[in-house]
Design goal:
212 residues; mainly alpha; single chain; globular; 0% strand
Length: 212
């Protein structure tokens, strides 16, 4: 885990990419503060970057063949998969607290674009969407590797952004924000729970097949 976080935050290329993403989100928010931008960042974009530690570790492992060396260590494949999945959840929690939450608080108490209830709703949707997308992205990178996994990741992100824009024109943000928070939490949590269980077993099976 320490190796993977080192590759995420201490390798210059990865660190610059991460910092650039954060600055880009902040720039967009401060340049065009609106409900639309807040949802786009907090509920769609930030949840998608939680898989970064796994992506970076797979990239480096493919270059150095460390995944083969790791199999010689006194740890099981199950422990390796659990650790790699856990990294993405830790990183996602950090992103939620250090990026999404400040944006929501600034929107509620600074710009006053949202009221507290709307802010909590968007923040909660972002967390739920993170828990839905993490098992999908984790399984994708485990199955396809860094290059093909990145293509899948970009396609998913573009598809969700286009879907959000279309939904905004068809339904409107105002109607989405009127959906009770309890409904988002209930149905989203059920879906996230199911996907995380399936995602774990999928990642474990994929890893065992690729390293059999």
């Amino acid at each position: 885990m320490l190796k993977d976080f080192y590759e995420t935050f201490c390798i210059k290329k990865n660190l610059l990419g991460f910092v650039f993403s954060i600055l880009l989100y902040c720039f967009i928010f401060f340049l065009m503060p609106s409900e639309y931008i807040i949802i786009l960042i907090v509920a769609l974009s930030v949840p998608m970057i939680g898989v970064s530690p796994l992506q970076y570790s797979i990239e480096r492992d493919e270059i150095s063949k460390f995944d083969q060396i790791l199999l010689t260590y006194p740890i099981s494949k199950k422990q390796i998969v659990i650790t790699k999945i856990l990294e993405t959840y830790i990183f996602n929690a950090i992103c939620q607290l250090m990026l999404s939450l400040p944006i929501i608080l600034m929107s509620v108490y600074g710009y006053r674009i949202l009221d507290l209830q709307e802010g909590l709703l968007i923040f909660s949707v972002g967390i739920i969407f993170s828990l839905i997308m993490l098992p999908i992205n984790n399984a994708g990178f485990m199955a396809f590797g860094n290059k093909k996994g990145t293509i899948m990741y970009v396609v998913l992100l573009v598809a969700f952004v286009i879907g959000f824009i279309t939904l905004n024109f068809v339904v409107g943000i105002e109607l989405l924000l009127l959906i009770p928070l309890n409904n988002w939490l209930l149905y989203g949590s059920i879906l996230a729970f199911i996907l995380n269980i399936l995602g774990y077993f999928a990642c474990l099976k994929i890893y065992e097949i690729k390293h059999s």
